[in-house]
Structures are given as C-alpha cells and as structure tokens.
Amino acid sequence: MEHKKENYMSYVVMYLAYFASYALFTVLTPVYLTDKGYSTVDVSFVVSSGLLASMLLSTYVGRLSDKYGTKHINIVLLLISASFGILYMLMDQLILIALAYAATFCLMNVVNPAIEKVATMSRFRYGTIRVWGTIGFSLGTQVSGIIYGNFGAIALYSTFSIVMVITAMSLLFIPGVHGMQTTNVSDPSIHKSEYRLMSLLSQCNFMVYLLIGSLLYASANVSATHLPNMFKLDGLDVSQISTILSIAVLAEIPLMLYSHTFMDKLDSKQLMFLYLSAFGIQFAVYAYVPFVPLKIMVTLLCKHVMGMLFIMTNLKVIHMIIPLHSQMTALAIVSTLNSVSAVILQNVSGAILSVSSYTVFYTLLGVLCGASLLLLPLLKINEDKSVKLFN
Questions:
Q1: In sequence order, what are the residues at sequence separation of 6 or more whose Cβ sits closer than 8 angstroms to the Cβ of residue 93?
Q2: Which in 6, 179, 328, 354 has the greatest CB count within 10 A?
Q3: Rounded to whole angstroms, how far apart are CA atoms 100 and 84?
Q4: How many CA atoms lie within 13 A of 20 on its CB side?
Q5: Run of H or E residues at 95
Q6: Dihedral of CA 86/89/90/96: which sign?
Q7: Each residue's pLDDT tens digit, 124-141
Q8: What pTM value is reported for the model?
Q9: Are 264 and 312 in contact (CB under 8 A)?
Q10: For residue 159, what is the DSSP state?
C-alpha cells in the first residue's frame, strides 16, 4: 500500500458507497420477488444463482489480485455490476431475473475480499475505516425500505446502480494494493509451486477451516435471505423490517471502533467459538420462541455483530495460516467455498420452507452451527501475537 498518498476521506466514501449499494441490492430481494408472485423456491433459485456465479469467478479474481493488484480490476467489475443492476430491474421472467441478479451480485461480491483486506493494509486503524462500511450498510438497508415502499423497485435498483458507480469512482482515489505475487516472485525462498492453487488446497488445516467457515456462512446467508419474510409472517411491514435490519447493522459500530482492543489479543479459535455459539442461539430463538420482541432482540445483538466478527476473524485466520504472497487467493477460495455451501443450502432451505415451517428451517441451521463447533478442535492455528492487523 502506498501510504504517502492515502487520504482518509477516500476510504470513507469507498466504504460508505460500497456497503450501501450492497444493502440496496440484496436486503429486500426476497420481498421484491415475493411481491412479484414468486415462491420461496424461486427466491432461493435467484439468490443461489448469484452465489453460484460468485463461486465460479471469485478464485480467479483473487489470483489476478495477487498477481497484478486489486485497484483497476475492482473498478471495472463494479462498473459492470452497476450496468447489470439496471437490467435486473427490467426483467420479468424468472430465468432472466436470475441471470441479471447473478451477474450483478457476482461482480459486486467478488470484490468484497479485496475491499475487506484494504482496511487492514492502510496506515489508518482498521476500525476507523471499516466502521464506515457498517454505517453504509445500515443507511442502505434503511433507505431501501423507504425507496421501495414509496417509489417502487425501479427507483430502488436505479439508486443501487448510481451508488455503485460512486463506489467505482472512489477507488480512483485509493492507493493501489500491489500484487503480492509480482513483488515476491523473485524471492528465492518462495518456490513457484507455492503460487499454485493446489498448494493451498492440499493443506489439511486450511481445508478444515474452509469446512467450518462454509457451514457457518451458508447458515448465516440463508437466514438473512428468509429473515424479512419471517418477520412479515410475524406481522411486521416492510418499513418496520428495514428499520430493524438497519439498527442491527449499526450495532456493529462499537465492535468496529474497539476491534483494536481485542482482535489482536484474543486467540482466533476463541473468537470462532464466540460467533458460532451466538449464531446457534440466534437460530434457536427463531425456531422455538414465538415472542416477536425477543426475535427482534437477538437480531439486533447477533445477526450483524457476529457476522462482522466472522469477517474480521476470517482475515486474522488467513493471515496466520497462509503465506503473505497467497493471501488474496486464499480469501478468494474461502469466498468460493462459502458460495458453494450457500448455493446448496439456499435450494435446500427453499424446498423446506415450501412444505414446512420456519421452525424446521432454523432447527437445521442450528444443527449446522453445532457441526462447526464440533470441528473447531481439529483446527490448528499458531497465534503470532506480534501481528497487529487491527491497530
């Protein structure tokens, strides 16, 4: 990272715009498709199409980022994503909706690992940068409900495309992250075979981490997809739902601002145990507690707070177990496997909800969290306390 050219406001604009656009496009997808007359199976099909496309592209984009750097690649991908967002709102047939959604979401989503990592590589403290992503997602969530409720889907997805273009343009003012492969390939201590994808996939420890992470990510992903409709079934309207989800995002802010006080000090497995347990409790409440205020409370305390802890811990674990020159590739592999697991679970969950209840659905998600907890002792991480990613 070129520290001398860094400007704090450049990061503020980038994180605000990127995460606001992410929320504008994704948060009300199940509500939008349900209002168009599609079933939960159709909703899962559309959402999983985006995850499947991300799976196919993310590892390749990660390898390009390791080799050439992320800046210009990300700008192009975000601009194309904004263009497909316009097409998405114009589609009426399910297959065309799925294709447009897949292209828009995929091109936006494959940029995410690089966006997240940038915050750990600048001269500014991680929390003071990443907090703007939290604020952006919260604003996007709240505004999406206002726009959709008052002006409709065309206004919502037009706003998404405009904000996505702002994101792409803001990257012009962010110093480029040089490709690790380019800067290290002449290092005689690094054999060329270490840059190969299979060298990462042959590491048993990394594979254990992938399995734990993919089970949790898939569970959290499908929960987020169907949560708005669960709240609608409980009697809440779209405006109330978007407000709840917006406040839930804002609950991340203390976690962001004080991440430097605990993220580098606690062991990675302690952090993983915390968020796996919290997600399990959240799913248990959704499944077995009919009291809506309690469901709202666990949403505010767990959904995004623990999701953010998962994101930060992922950055830390990859830094601990993967060599520097392959970390963008490893993050992309994590993203790919997460997408694979989410695609499978999205379709399973859609089928379950079409014939059963949210109790069965969230019981399944709780079981998957339990499986991740059982796998946790198999993961080996040599913690390096000298590493300061979040300071």
A1: none
A2: 328
A3: 6
A4: 24
A5: helix 94-109
A6: positive
A7: 887 788 889 888 988 898
A8: 0.70
A9: no
A10: H
Q: Which two structure tokens, joined as six digits, stand for 24? A: 């504008």
pLDDT per residue over 128-177, tens digit each? 888 898 889 888 988 888 898 889 889 999 999 999 999 988 888 876 54
CA 18 to chain centre: 12
Q: Which residue has the tokens 């966006």?
A: 115
CA angle 5-11-12, nearest 5°?
135
Dig out the tokens for 218 from the structure: 């898939």
What secondary structure letter does DSSP report for 72?
Answer: H
Report the C-alpha gap between 248 and 254 in whole angstroms.
12
Name which of 9, 299, 252 is nearest 137 in CA terms: 252
Q: Which helix (H) or strand (E) holds 364?
A: helix 358-375
The owner of tokens 């590493």 is: 387
Residue labelled with tokens 């399990």: 280
The token duo for 89 is 């709102």
- Residue 184 parent element (H or E): helix 180-184
User: Residue 327: its pLDDT value, please?
Assistant: 72
SS (H, E, C) 310-362: HHHHHHHHHHHHCCHHHHHHHHHHHHHHHHHHHHHHHHHHHHHHHHCCHHHHH
Phi and psi dihedrals of 150, rounded to 5?
Answer: -105, -30
